[in-house]
Amino acid sequence: MYFKIFYHDIFEKHIVPNGHPERSDRIKTLNELIIYNFEPYLKKIKIIDPIHLIKKIHNSEYLNQIYSLKTNGKLIQLDQDTFFSENTLIAAETAVSGIIQAIDYVMKKDNFKAFVCSRPPGHHAEPDKAMGFCIFSNAAIGAKYALEKFDLNQVAVLDFDVHHGNGTQKSFESEPNLIYASTHEMPLFPGTGFSEEIGVGNIINEPIGPSTNGKTFIDVWKFKILPRIKLHNPELLIISSGFDAHKDDPLSSINMTSEDYKNLTNMIVEFANKNCKGRLVSILEGGYNLNALNESVKFHIDALIV
Questions:
Q1: Residue 167: closest CA among 245, 236, 79
Q2: Partner of 286 for a Cys bridge, out of 98, 140, 239, 242, CB 3.0 to 4.6 A?
């Protein structure tokens, strides 16, 4: 089995206000983790101009707004919790570059897998706006790219972040060849992701109540989501890997442990191996307690490598 971690230090230069949960320390601690523990698997992202790919998901009005922003050394607030600094655009473009290169890598041969260690996250960014710390909808852009570049019939995004990926869903809801499945705490930001939201039969939402434990969380994937994903016969899986359902995370009240993420990832890897020729790309989304994030990502990568 072949595995790569796609990373870059530019992600540390996307700046947010002091006290903001989606801070540079998240990627700094993860870069230290992967360099120390997983150096043989590292692949530095080559920064490309991904605008033609971003346009497949985001509309011209939004992109014109983002690409015309001038920070003049200051932070620009895009919504109540999404900020734009001098290096935000290049960081967001590099995150897109990373998932594109990861997809190119895993599609080379059966049983290739990859993890994209990037920020800002992406799954809240809607086609027409930034939202929830997110600038570009990385997983959605990657899925659309894979569908077209490799002439695939179905690509599935599996989102276990504790917040619903409204941006990914919005991008997919009229696209029958793109499947989106999510577990997420409810009620919680962004307030979307009800089970009745099914798109054109390609959207699977399984809201989870506060204080849910790890076993129940994993069982939802095992018994409710993955069997439905199998019916779509995806040829590639993309995981929106948020680790903020952890019991120590400040933004949620689900009780996942770090080791639960290894068990969940093992299950998804087994599914990919049986149903998608082992082709799987994971990209970082949330996770805001640094110790919990570090532990959970290590378990996640360990499971991807095996």
A1: 79
A2: 242
Sign of CA dihedral 288, 256, 251, 162: positive
What average pLDDT does this structure show over 216-222? 98
| 54-84 per-position pLDDT tens digit | 999 999 999 999 999 999 999 999 999 999 9
Mark 123-154 as b/e (b = at least 16 C-beta within 10 Å): bbbbbebbbbbbbbbbbbbbbbbbbeeeebeb
Contact predicate 9/70, CB 8 Å: no
Q: What is the pLDDT of residues 196-214, one digit of tens each?
A: 999 999 999 999 999 999 9
pLDDT of 1 strictly over 80? no
Per residue in 151-166, pLDDT tens? 999 999 999 999 999 9
C-alpha pair distances (Å), 87 with each of 7, 83, 94: 16, 11, 11
> 2-305, superfamily in CATH?
Histone deacetylase domain (3.40.800.20)
On the question of pLDDT at 226 being above 60, the answer is yes
Sign of dihedral through CA atoms 158, 161, 164, 165?
negative
CA distance 5 to 102: 8
| Two tokens, residue 221 | 């994937």
